[in-house]
Amino acid sequence: MKKALVISGGGSKGAFAGGVAQYLMKKENRNYDMFLGTSTGSLMVSHLALGMLDELKELYTSVNQKSIFSNNPFKIRKIAGEQIVKINHFNTFWNFLNGRKTFGESKNLRKLIKENITKEMYEQIINQDKEVVVTISNITANQIEYKSNKECSYEDFLDWIWGSCNYVPFMSLLEKNRQQYADGGFGSLVPIREAISRGATEIDAIILETEVNYINRLHAKNPFTLLFDIIAFMLSNVERHNITIGKLAASQKDVKLNLYYTPTVLTTNSLIFNKNLMRKWWDSGYAYAKTKQEELMSEFRPDVLN
C-alpha cells in the first residue's frame, strides 16, 4: 500500500487545503508516503511531509501581498466593504520599463520559501523516505514536468517550488537551465494521474474549487481583467480535465481515490492574500473534512453516529 496526498493549485485558497490536511493527518491519522502539489500545493507539501501542521498554519495565516510580491501589479481598494482589485499602472509600467517579461514580480515569495523550507527540512524528508513532488510548466519545451525531492538538490528544489507558484504574467517567470518555467497549474492543476504513475494505491486529493461551477463573472472592463478572466477560464477547464483523467486512471488501476472540494466559492481572485480570510478558510477546511468523514462513516456504518 502506498498512500498519496495531492493538493491542487489555488493561491490563497491553499489555507483551506491546510485545514483539510490537518484533520486528515491529525484526527484520521492518515500517514502518506507521497505528497504532490501544484502551485500553492507545492508550497505546502514539504511541511506536510514532516507533519509540521502548526508551522504551516502560521505561515498561511500570516502572509500578505508584500510577502509574495516584490512588485505588485494589483491595487486593492475597499468599496462598501468589498475588496475591489484593479491594475497598478505605475508598477506594471515600471516592470516594462526595466525589461521585465511580466506585469509583476514575486521575488519576495522566493525569499519566503527559503526562510520556511530549510535545508534541514529537506534532508529530514529524504531521511524519512518521504517523496515530495511539485508540478511545473516548462513553457520552452511545451510540457509539464514533475520535480521530486529525491531527484534534485536543495536549491533546485526551492526554485521548482517557486516556479510552480508563479502565476504568469502576474508573477515572475522562472528562467533556469536555458528554459522558461511557469505555474504548474497551466497544465496539471490536480496531479492525480502522476501520483498513480508513481505507484500510489490510495489518494486523498484536495481540490481548491467547488465541485459544481457557481461563478458567473462580471464583464471585463479592461484588457488586464480580461486576461485574468481568460486564464481563470482555462485553468478551470484544465482542472476538470485533470480530475476526469485521474478518475479514469484510478478506476483502471484499482486505486482508491477520495476527492475533497471546497463546499463554497472562497474567492474569485486567489492572488489576494488576506490573512484574516485565510485564517477563516483554514478553520472551514478543517470543519469540512470533519463533516465529510462523518458522512462517509454514517454511509458505511449507520450505527456509528446514533
User: Which structural class best describes the helix and strand composition?
Assistant: alpha/beta
- What percentage of residues falls in helices of 4 or more residues? 40-55%
Report the radius of gyration as a whole number of Å. 19 Å
Q: List the uncertain runs.
A: none
Query: What average pLDDT do the residues reach?
Result: 92
Total helices: the number is 11
The percent range for strand residues is 15-25%
What's the quaternary structure here?
single chain
The major β-sheet equals: 8 strands, mixed
Report on this model:
By secondary structure, the protein is an alpha/beta fold. Helix content is 45%, strand content 18%. The chain contains 11 helices and 10 strands. Strands 1, 2, 5, 6, 7, 8, 9 and 10 form an 8-stranded mixed β-sheet that branches. Helix 10 (223-253) links the parallel strand 9 and strand 10. Helix 2 crosses helix 8 (154-165) and helix 6 (107-116) crosses helix 8 (154-165). It is globular, with a radius of gyration of 19 Å. The two termini are 32 Å apart.
